[in-house]
Amino acid sequence: MIKKQTGETNFIKFLGTAGARFVVSTQLRASGGIWFSLDGVNILGDPGPGCLVRCIASRPKMNPARLNAIMITHRHLDHCADVNIMIEAMTEGGTKKRGVLFAPRQALEEDPVVFQYVRKFLSRLEILKEGGTYFVGSPPKADATQLDGVSFSTPIRHQHPVETYGVNFKTPLVTISWVVDTAFFPELLKLYKGEVLILHSVRYKDENDKEKGIYHLNLDDVKTIVNELRPKVTFLTHFGMKMLKAKPHELARELSEETGCRVIAASDGMKFDLTNLSEA
Predict the structure, then answer these.
(1) Distance between CA atoms of 166 and 186, rounded to whole angstroms?
(2) 245 vs 70: CA distance, rounded Å
(3) pLDDT at 19 > cutoff 50
(4) Each residue of 177-212: pLDDT tens digit?
(5) Under 8 Å between Cβ of 185 and 208
(6) What percentage of the chain has pLDDT greater than the value 70?
(7) Rounded Cα distance, 151 and 242, in Å
């Protein structure tokens, strides 16, 4: 049976667009992460500080009890500070054993960010690794002509101070590449070819300093990636202070004109209907 694709079951909701410690700590932009609804499967990505509040305050409300999975791409606080409370909310206070947590091993074993007691509430816990492939949804049946769920992969470890992975989602409707925190390196251009591209665009200029643990994409990196990959639509998010001062919406408009590709600067609470992708 082929599912009907609608904007209520196929969308991306930006619960927050903050990146870098100052923007997060001052909440100049919210830091709630991203809610992916893919073919009716709900996955919460990187629940940073205030994620639960952002879910409940959304209109319409994003009900955590409808989540199928939570994913943390790495253990920095702006990506995982609310992971424990979101697990509790997903499992209705631990009263229902359900949902999957995906996280790098370092986030679970080395200075862990996920409490042991909430892990017991989950249906399962899976460790993200380089070259890994994963599935969220009903278990595939031997005679099934279509998977009832969403598959995704973590193609390579990013260049970031802690163990970090970006994600390629694959659904019957669309492919999405989510390029989270990293310094630029050439393999990014080979491994993230989704029709929808989400780039963590923290830096306005090249200010990476590996001695200080700063490894992020800047605006020139973003231009290179968009020009090379030419997705149907690119979202910029996870903004640092200098990116905010440079006005991300104006930068996105300029990038659209320069590259000939649709580039959108995400805003807190923005929802994008994936069924309208053909219009991009």
Answers:
(1) 14
(2) 31
(3) yes
(4) 999 999 999 999 999 999 999 999 999 998 766 666
(5) no
(6) 91
(7) 35
Q: How far is CA 175 from CA 58, 152, 170, in A?
A: 26, 9, 5
Exposed e or buried b for every residue in 72-97, given b needs 16+ CB within 10 A? bbbbbebbbbbbbebbbbbbeeeeee
Per-residue pLDDT, averaged over 16-45, amounts to 96
pLDDT tens digit sequence for 224-256: 999 999 999 999 999 999 999 999 999 999 999
Residues 117, 231: Cα–Cα separation, whole Å: 41
Q: How far apart are CA 213 and CA 161, in angstroms?
A: 6
Q: Are 99 and 137 a contacting pair, CB within 8 Å?
A: no
Residue given tokens 């997903």 in the structure block: 90
User: Residue 256: how many CB atoms within 10 A of its CB?
Assistant: 16
CA pair distance 46, 62, nearest whole angstrom: 15
Question: What is the arithmetic mean of pLDDT over 61-70?
Answer: 97
pLDDT tens, position by position, 139-150? 555 554 455 789
Give CA–CA dist 15/204, Å, rounded: 22
Strands 11-14 and 34-38: antiparallel
**Which residues have CB under 8 Å from 24's CB, separation 6+?**
18, 31, 48, 49, 77, 78
Q: Are 80 and 164 in contact (CB under 8 A)?
A: no
Q: Has domain 11-139+150-279 been given CATH number 3.60.15.10? A: yes
Identity of the residue numbered 244: L
Give the model's pLDDT for residue 20.
Answer: 86
Taking the C-alpha atoms of residue 18 and residue 40, their distance in angstroms, rounded to an integer, is 26
Hunting for tokens 């209907």 — which residue is that? 273
Residue with tokens 């009900």: 63
To the nearest whole number, what is the mean pLDDT of the chain? 93
User: Contact 266/45 with Cβ under 8 angstroms?
Assistant: no
